[in-house]
Amino acid sequence: MVYLKQLCYIKSMAKPKISDFLELSVPERIQLVQDIWDTIAEVPECLELTKEQKQEIDRRIEKLDRHPDTAIEWSTLKERIGL
Fold first, then answer.
1. Which is it for the CA torsion 8, 10, 14, 15, positive or negative?
2. 60 and 37 in one domain?
3. Cα–Cα distance between 36 and 30 in angstroms, integer?
4. What is the pLDDT of residues 9-46, one digit of tens each?
5. Which domain holds residue 30?
6. pLDDT per residue as tens digits for the range 50-78
7. Residues 21 and 35 grouped into a single domain
8. Which of 1, 8, 25, 69 has an alpha carbon 20 to 30 Å from 51's alpha carbon atom?
9. Residue 23 to residue 53: CA distance in whole angstroms
């Protein structure tokens, strides 16, 4: 969260301008995005799924329940896609 802390001055601004962030290097901006995402992930209960997202999750769970043999391990998937 180094870069997020470096940008504390932005707190006093009504809304930061994109140009404020463009002064950072690309690696610094990537780190900033990661830091911001981490703060969002700390409060997942604040992120509500849409009706469509909930329906999609239910559809996928139903499909998995009907055809459990179609599931693959996360490690297998990562290997298939080269991660």
1. negative
2. no
3. 10
4. 545 556 788 888 999 999 999 999 999 999 988 887 88
5. 2-46
6. 999 999 999 999 999 999 999 999 999 99
7. yes
8. 69
9. 36
